[in-house]
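TASK: fixed-backbone design
INPUT:
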């Protein structure tokens, strides 16, 4: 998708923005994104959205609007969001490394679309040597999966363990 890509909405043509373009200066954005994570947190629904450039942003939906949007927002689906707000991400524990967060309004629209030209899930594999060298400082969390060689050598099956570090 190029920045000049357009989509048809209610008889008019609107341009799409990328996540890096978003800022609090206006409330009426149009964004094509893949929903890579959805969860409930207290009286809010939270989402992680991914654009075709591979950038991620967190989105929040307040309690009264959850029932309106819940069925329209499914993990792994691709949607065009329109008429949402953007504010500072002041969460004490950020789940994505982005200064802003998307806020859904009553007037926010969600339109399912077909076609995706970006990365599927927003992660990339990083070699252990880069982590050891401290070259992953911009990552919030790194998860490393390792096979337990001793168990494999003893014939006890293939057990997969994970270790998590904040870098």
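OUTPUT:
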């Amino acid at each position: 998708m190029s920045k000049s890509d357009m989509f048809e909405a209610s008889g008019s043509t609107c341009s799409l923005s990328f996540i890096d373009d978003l800022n609090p200066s206006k409330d009426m954005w149009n964004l094509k994104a893949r929903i890579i994570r959805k969860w409930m947190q207290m009286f809010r629904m939270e989402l992680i959205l991914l654009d075709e450039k591979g950038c991620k942003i967190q989105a929040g939906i307040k309690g009264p609007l959850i029932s309106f949007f819940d069925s329209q927002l499914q993990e792994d689906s691709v949607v065009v969001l329109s008429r949402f707000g953007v504010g500072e991400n002041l969460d004490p524990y950020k789940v994505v490394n982005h200064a802003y967060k998307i806020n859904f309004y009553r007037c926010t629209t969600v339109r399912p679309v077909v076609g995706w030209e970006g990365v599927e899930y927003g992660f990339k594999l990083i070699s252990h040597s880069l982590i050891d060298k401290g070259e992953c400082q911009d990552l919030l969390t790194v998860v490393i999966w390792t096979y337990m060689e001793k168990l494999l050598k003893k014939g006890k099956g293939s057990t997969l363990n994970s270790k998590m570090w904040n870098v």
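COMMENT: DSSP finds three helices and eleven strands in the chain.
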